[in-house]
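This week, study the protein below.
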Amino acid sequence: MPREPSPRTKRVGPMTDDQKRALSKVPAVTLGFWVIKILATTLGETGGDTVTMTLEWGYLAGTALFAVLLIGLVIAQILSKRFYSVLYWATIIASTTFGTTMADFADRSLGIGYTGGTALLLACLAVVLGLWYASEGTVSVDTVSTPRIEAFYWGAITFSQTLGTALGDWLADSGSLGYEGGALVFAGALALVIALYYRTSVSRVALFWAAFILTRPLGATVGDFLDKPVASGGLNLSRPLASTVLAAVIVALVVLLPQRPGRHPGQEAATS
């Protein structure tokens, strides 16, 4: 009498197209992903400064504007039935631009300073990741497959973007390193994360979030270096022009680089 296959070896039928789409709402984490992410964070800095400083909206109005855009895009992302690269990266750019104006509002308008703003945002990010872990047992982006997990994901993304802005400003200004020095520090920290990824068995989930957070202050310091006055250590380039060029490069990369959805662990199990 033939034995029943064990749960580990039992095969199941291939997933339907609807199931695959439901499990693929975020892109695969590739080199192209990180290149676009860094450019998006730089655009978030120059774009946020364009609205709040060049157009003189101020931090509160700018934060409100980008908050509305971000909420709308996050809702569209959650309601979508599959991965759309343009929608995903538009949401990332909205989160990084909101992060710029929100961090500036907290640091400057509320008067809590760079150190206080960084500490507050770090606590908020820790709370979101803690709630996500308590709910799902993991904070891996490979598990983003339901509206609840997507809400945790975008909450963590937004707080990490805002934290990165405050951290970049804190190191560049309070640390007296300047924008170039700050960019070098964060580039070095990213290099360390890459070394840990390839040379050690440190949690890949922890390394992902470390890299995601660090790319934000790297982009923020580069953006500040581009558009801040020469007297403040910047190049004093036109913020609208810099933002337009960065946006054009991001669009080109999204179109030219492969933008495949990430694979949920359930996909591999279902197709093995």
